[in-house]
Task: structure prediction
Amino acid sequence: MAERFTIESEKQLVAFKVGREEFGVDVLRVEGVIAMVEITRMPRAPEFVEGWGMYSEQMMREQGFDAGPEFLLAMHTDAIWRACRIILDVRMHRGELSVEEATAFLVEHTGFEHANAQAEVFRYTYTPTYQLSYLLGKVLLLQLRADEQRRLGEHFSLKGFHDTLMNNGSLPISFHRRLLATQAAANG
Result:
């Protein structure tokens, strides 16, 4: 999967790997090629991208990393915040809450300072439904993993599951599900 990064703050590269070979191409050259050639763009499904972040936090705990009380407190505090995001996103876009009411809700339920809560709420006003992607994505990934564990039984590999997802890219989780089913049918 391509990754964008900066070198010496002047040149931006797109890095990619083909087999064992690693390459870096100047972004300006890539943008020029894209302007001249019709290229199929890979989607960046928010429920995968953001859900992967939340899923990874939980998986790290499941694997025994960061299981201390400070980490658990932070993880649960973040879960409350992310749940509040869903409530506020839906209620604001249904016209049930004003920005002021949403800010007060966030302060009350997360303990955020008013200025931070207000900045969050303003963000929700220009990214409708995006907030749903964090928790929803995590839940969908956990369901997909459980389904694959059931399907593969003792042949299930957490590393293999993760490698497959990463190799397929930031697709909607329903696409990952179809790719895994196709792969399973091909392997008989």
In short: The radius of gyration is 20 Å. Helices lie at 27-36, 46-62, 69-93, 99-110, 114-126, 132-152, 158-168, 173-187.
